[in-house]
Design brief:
This protein has 5 helices and no strands. The chain is mainly α and about 100 residues long. Helix 2 packs across helix 3, helix 2 packs across helix 4 and helix 4 packs across helix 5. The longest helix has 14 residues, at about 85-99. It starts with about 20 loop residues before the first helix and ends with a helix.
Length: about 100
């Protein structure tokens, strides 16, 4: 019997240190740990930043690795998801090395 791997199973042996997973995996994992939908995270980012320009579609692009959140949104993502800006930046750098 062969085991099929799902996206949830694909952890790529991260060492749990800063910059040990790409930004798209970090955002998705933390959002789910906080029990938020993409819509809820977008709304929370809008409330925290007082900037309603982020949408569920943008959160989805970040989680798929299609776009990388810029420094402005990384600071608010860190605040919303309970991680430092440095950890978010390290995840961006790791993701760029993975591409």
């Amino acid at each position: 019997m062969t085991k099929t791997m799902s996206i949830a199973d694909d952890t790529r042996d991260h060492d749990d240190g800063p910059g040990s997973e790409p930004i798209w995996e970090l955002v998705r994992r933390l959002r789910k740990q906080h029990g938020l939908t993409q819509y809820q995270l977008a709304d929370l980012l809008g409330e925290l930043s007082a900037n309603q320009s982020v949408s569920r579609d943008e959160v989805a692009r970040w989680e798929r690795g299609k776009r990388v959140p810029g420094p402005y949104w990384r600071q608010w993502l860190g605040a919303a998801l309970g991680v430092s800006t440095e950890e978010m930046t390290a995840a961006v750098q790791y993701g760029r090395r993975c591409r």
